[in-house]
Amino acid sequence: MTGLRRRRVDRPDLEAREALLREMAALDAQGLNRGSAGNGSVRATEGGFWITPTGVGAAGLTLENLVWVDGNGRAHGDWQPSSEWHFHRAVYATRSDLHAVLHAHAPHATALACLRRGLPAFHYMVAVAGGDDVPCTPYHLFGTEALSAAVAQAFAQRLACLMANHGLVAGGRDMAHATRVLLEVESLCGIYLQALSVGEPVCLTRAEMAAVIDKFKSYGQPQARRERRTR
Ligand SMILES: [Zn+2]
């Protein structure tokens, strides 16, 4: 290993970067990403974030080829970051509480995004993304500032969005949380498409969704809730 590579491996955030590698492999194994289509990142303690490299599938990802993009948007090391690093940066800039971002061309979410439709409040679990819908951004070319701005706008109030004719983005307090949001939204998109195939789903009211969001705040084990508050 060269001196440069050694230093990069020794950088902080080792646990978060290992979680990123594990999750990218899991998404690939579950068929939610294929080849080098999706990407993921974790916030770096030195500023900026660590992101998967461009053109490398899950099987080829290592601690050494994760790319550190610093707080000024400058990539370090021998590998090029994912071509979609711009919207990861936009999410971290918009939400200081988020530390992990996953992007996948997951089949159900992507199918819905190709209809240029988001998820309305057709099921109470839509609240997992922080509100009473999961929006679909307008179409913009991948890797552009226009797409980043649209994703940032969606993340101002949500933990996930669909990108028209493209795929799904989900964020979380950590990789486990981002994964939970991504998997739930992908599952909901599948259920919504099924419901749409036989009729128009009945949506919950604003008041009904507000009650769900309120209940989510006290859901789970007390220890987990304390940890959520202190992060
Ligand atoms: Zn993509």
What does this structure look like?
The protein is an alpha+beta fold and 231 residues long. It has one domain: Class II aldolase/adducin N-terminal domain (L-fuculose-1-phosphate Aldolase, 3-Layer(aba) Sandwich), CATH 3.40.225. The protein contains 8 helices and 8 strands; from the N terminus they run ααββββαβαβαββααα. It has helices at 3-10, 14-29, 85-94, 107-114, 145-155, 175-196, 206-217, 222-230, and strands spanning 39-43, 49-51, 67-69, 75-76, 100-104, 136-137, 160-163, 167-172. Strands 4-3-2-1-5-8-7-6 form an 8-stranded mixed β-sheet, with helices on both faces. β6, α5 and β7 form a beta-alpha-beta unit. The radius of gyration is 18 Å and the shape is globular. The protein starts with a helix and ends with a helix. Mean pLDDT is 92; it is low at 1-9. The chain binds zinc ion.
